[in-house]
Design goal:
Chains A, B, C, D: This is Ion transporter. The structure is a homotetramer. The first copy, chain A, is 72% helix and 1% strand. Chain A contains 13 helices and 2 strands. The longest helix of chain A is centred in the middle third of the chain and has 26 residues.
Chain lengths: 278, 278, 278, 278
């Protein structure tokens, strides 16, 4: 009895190393296979929505879908078995996403309604975020994330200002333009204001009256100046962090001539030739 | 008689603390309720313009509208009563806006014309600016405002240059394209030029002749280089203020000459030579 | 005879001071009047192209037009008379523009063809550039111009790269998309590529085939990275010039402790309290 | 026999100097002629696709096309003859491009199918990249290329993030909007997401339902903040390289340890303490 339990424990241990570890060969291989299957499953859902492809290859898509679902199901069960705190995993973000990845196919046996199914299947796409955690990419994106986090607060205040501006501009345009030129309600006007301020400019709604076009011109020129703000915030943050990592600093000081600005790796003072402290 | 007056004075005093103060519990609560009601009233005006919602919930919207109007009316009267200089308040920006927030409903009893009414009701949205004065957001937005104010003059000169360019480009395009492709007048051409230079690009008017498309291409590439300018101005300002806060600060203050801006590692005042505190 | 000549000389001298000078009261007044009349004449040409206004106020517009033309004619003649080298002025940029401003009305007596006339009248708009030379604005725009001139060469190389990219992308899209979806020729494809790379995006031509939309997506993401380049160039230039004008430099050096980085207006060394040289 | 061979060798040598060299007068002249002919051939292919021009000048275009093809053929043969390693050249990027430039006309004798031909002819445009190697432009573009290469990795991570975002946003919009408003499949939704995130905004597909427009507004505001990131990266890189070239340079070189990067005002090598030249 103990033997069987220890065998099961060994199996659990091995599974955990393969599923969660990235240092062993099998662990790395598994990560790559999983990565490929996630991308494939995303591609399958995409293809499924293209009418031409769906008509021609319906059976092939369905078979692929079932194979992937079975693989993901086994992976999900193994994860639950091998982890220390299975309950915590199941209700974590990735636990729910992993369940989302397998549920749709089993649900499709009972519910033939395609639209609801598609919504659940699309949620599977969030597994893509797992790929973001590949170490190589993570390492390079640290500086990116730091600069964005440092400027997060200012950007939020800025977005708050843009949203209030959009509400007021959208309402004014609704009053000025009226229903004939697409501004059917104030929310529609706000949608137009955001489309314009962000310089996207679909053109599905656009001012038709001279006054409306004049106001729109003012909004666009305002948006022109405004778009500089988030860029300025992020850039200043990048420049700061990249100057910090720059090789000049005032950390070292020459004991003879007291000059203070040196290369970080300088051994001698550039001014008097004196040996610098480490 | 004096007793009644003092009671009234006490009431005025209490009201003032609640309406204008933010330090007491009641004052803070009142601010939150007011914030919620302003957002609700804005939402109500929005919903009112959506045809589907208006048809279904006309009575409910009207009732909500009246409740809010009554609350705003009481608030407006209390503000006039409790403030020291009521005349100054009534003719101030927020005084007029606060009046705007309650007028439309009372006017709607006498004037059934919906369009004029909507214009006045939308003016109520400017109360949203009051929300901008919430201390937490104000604190964070100081650096934003400073950087924008420092670059204001340069951005104005830049906008002035863009407007003159838009006038000349718009006129040329009117001559080149003519009335068939939407360039019905020079103001229309200028509207197109602004839509293009700001990279909004609705597509409601777009060049159709080969020469017009060639000129438009030149304008777009020009606009490509031009959009960099406001960004450059604002970014340089941000970078400057964030570099300044790096090695220079106002932490140290000279006790002799009261100069406040020093290097962080300064030991002596650069102005008078006095020893600085650590 | 000499008397008359000297009277004429005096008249010339006085005229010159008024027309070209900006220091006397009359000179400044004349500049303001001219500025107003140029703006008015531009407004008149604009109004003239708007059909509704033209129909209603045709006679009034014509009268205003003639009054301005007569004023500009007198100004032009006085300029030729009062200047030292009249030939040089006539064939200079502003000389030709000034002539352009008065010619259309006189030509309209002989040629009733409106289209040719409008072209010449629009050229008058270049007089607006004269307004750019108002001293107040010029002073503020110097830094702007310097930063743009410093980054001119790099932006030209960048535009050159964008144009070649647009040619290759436009040709590929012409081959991929074909005539059905608006890509009627390679120049049309290049026009589309520029509209897309600059993120203007009119939507008058847009890819319809899956392959075309895939290529377009690549182009847009490429353009996303590319738009950062001119901004980066200009911003770096602004930051450089604004750091230069910053108040810290290595110009002053303490004779006692040899520390080198000081405020430009520092009188004492922040390190040792020694008096600094000017 | 040896004489003939040496004559052939002399011819090869001379040809090589003209074709590959840029220091002799003939070499430079040849480069200019080649440049002109490449531009002309590109122009010819363009003109050929414009229906109006093709109809009118079909024969003239064909003659020009043949003249250029014959010139390019002779050039191609001479290049193969004169170069040391002809096989390496033929299979190099420029070798294949050079062959592409002449093949279409010879193929047109046997295959009259115009569409396939156009594709091959357009590939000739890649010869334009050769123009990029003109020394004057190359010199100015070095700093540009360096800054872009330095920020390449970060921009790739950023684009990777944008693509994953586009996939998830596009899928959600497909589910929300459905087929009526143009979101016919998930790939179509992704195409829309890229068009929106990059602020191009064609408007060929745009959300029509209130929920879709609300989601689109969120995406646009998100894209607003996102567009700042590549700009920030490139700008920080430019600013860094331009600050570096300010006070630090490679003008001085240590004669002892051969380190090259020093402060402009350095007197001693920071690495080994050796005296530096002025």
């Amino acid at each position: 009895m103990t033997k069987i339990k220890s065998k099961y424990d060994l199996f659990r241990q091995k599974t955990q190393i393969i599923l969660y570890g990235t240092n062993t060969f099998l662990g790395r291989m598994f990560d790559l296979v999983l990565l490929g299957l996630i991308l494939l499953s995303v591609l399958l859902v995409m293809m499924d929505t293209v009418e031409g492809i769906n008509h021609k290859y319906h059976t092939q898509l369905l078979i692929c879908e079932w194979i992937i679902t079975v693989f993901f199901t086994i992976e999900f069960i193994l994860r639950i078995i091998s982890i220390q705190k299975p309950i915590k995993y199941i209700f974590s973000f990735y636990g729910i996403i992993d369940l989302m990845a397998i549920l749709p196919m089993y649900l499709s046996i009972f519910f033939p309604a395609t639209n609801v199914l598609t919504i659940v299947r699309v949620l599977r796409f969030f597994r893509l975020f797992k790929i973001l955690h590949i170490p190589q990419i993570s390492q390079q994106s640290i500086q990116l994330r730091e600069a964005m986090e440092a400027s997060k607060e200012k950007i939020l205040v800025f977005i708050y200002f843009v949203v209030i501006s959009a509400i007021i501009i959208g309402s004014l345009m609704y009053v000025v333009e009226g229903k004939e030129s697409g501004f059917t309600s104030i929310p529609m006007g706000i949608y137009w204001a955001i489309v314009t301020l962000t310089t996207v400019g679909y053109g599905d709604i656009s001012p038709a009256s001279p006054l409306g076009q004049f106001l729109a011109s003012l909004v666009m020129i305002m948006g022109y100046g405004i778009i500089a703000v988030p860029t300025g915030i992020v850039t200043a943050e990048f420049a700061k962090s990249s100057l910090k990592s720059n090789s000049i600093s005032t950390k070292k000081k020459c004991s003879k001539c007291h000059s203070q600005v040196h290369f970080d790796n300088a051994k001698y003072c550039y001014e008097c030739g004196e040996t610098l402290p480490d």
